[in-house]
Amino acid sequence: MAEEDLNEEVLEEEEEDLTPPKKDKPKKCPECPSMAPAWMATFADMATLLMAFFVLILSFTESDKPSINKIVSGSRADSMGVQREVPSVEPPTAENMIAKNFKTAKVQPSFIVNVEEETTDSDPQDIELKSTDDPADKDNNSDLQTLKQALKKEIAKGKVEVTSEDGKILVNVKEDQTDLNESEREDDRTKGQIDQETLDLYAKIAETQSYLSAEVEVSFDSGNSEEERLKEQEKDERIDDQLRKVKADLNSAINQGLANVERVGDQILIQLSSQGSFRSGFAELRTDFLPTLAQVAQTLDGSDASITVSGHTDNIPIAFSERFESNWDLSAARASAVADYFMDAGRVTEERISVLGFADTKPIASNDNPTGRAQNRRIEILVDN
Fold first, then answer.
1. Rounded distance, CA 151 to CA 221, Å?
2. Model-level pTM?
C-alpha cells in the first residue's frame, strides 16, 4: 500500500511538470509626452554660440561713451539714428550810425574847473622862522618860537610848558587834575587811559615837530611826580635804616661767619649758616644756634613786615632717616623749626610768617666740594617791607 501511494504521488508530480505554463498578457507602452522637434535643440545651440561670438567681438572694440550712455538711457534713435537738422535763425543786425559818424574827443576844462585848480592845488607856504642875533642859537630859538606859537592856546591854559635846554626843546604836558580825584587819576594811570584832548595835543605837537629842525622831547607830568618821588625816597631811607639796624644787631654773628645780611630790592635778606644749627639729617635746633636766632628775633620785634623763612640743603640725598623721605621734607622741617622759635619767643605773630622748603634747587655755591655744600645748607629769612 505504501508503494502504491508513493507511485501515485510521483505520477501527480510528473503530470504537474508536464502542464504548460500560462502566458502573461503583454503590457501597453505609455504614451510619450508631446515635445519640440529634434532640430530645435540644434538651432538653440547655434544661436547661443552666435551670441557668445558677438559678445566676444564687442569686448575687443572701443565704444563711444556718449552713444553708449544714450543707448543705456533708452534713446536709441539719438545714438544710432539720423537726427533732424534744425536751421538756426540769427537775429538781425544793423550798423551803428552814431559810432560811425561820431567819435569821442578830449574834454576841455571849464572856467570853474580852472579856478578850483588854481585855488586848491597851490603849494603850502613854508613857515618862516624868526631869527635872532646869536648865530649859534639861531635855529633853536626860531624852532622854540614856532612851537610856542603853535601851542599858544595850550600854554595859556597851563596845559603845556615849552622850554629849551642843551639845544633841545622840552615840552612838558601837564595832567588836568581839576575834575579828577586821586583815586580816579590812579585808576586811569593803571589802565593806561588817555583822554581825547591829550591825544589831540600830542597830534598837534607831532605835526608842528615835522617843520622843526631841532630835537623835541615830550614829557608827561602827572602832577604827583614830586610827591611820589618823596614817598619813594622816604621808603628807601626807611629800608636802609632797618638794614643798618639788622647788621648792628647781628654784628657778632656776621663777624663769626654765622650770618649774612643784604638788601634785595625792597626786602632785607638774612642768611644763617648751617654751622652749629642742625645735626646732619635732623631738624631739631642745636643749643649753639639759639643765641643767633634770639638776636634775629629781637631784630624782627616791633616790625609789621611780613617774614618768609626758607630752608635749603645740598644735593646729597638724605639717608637712614625714619622721619624724612627727601631733602624737601628736611628743608621744610628746618624752616618750620626756626619759624616756631620766633613765634614761641613772642617776637613774630603767626599771620606775618610763612615757611618754604627748597631742598637743593637754589644753591648759592657749587655742590662739587665740601665748602660749597656747607654754604648751600642754610636758613634764609626774608623781611618784606
1. 17
2. 0.45
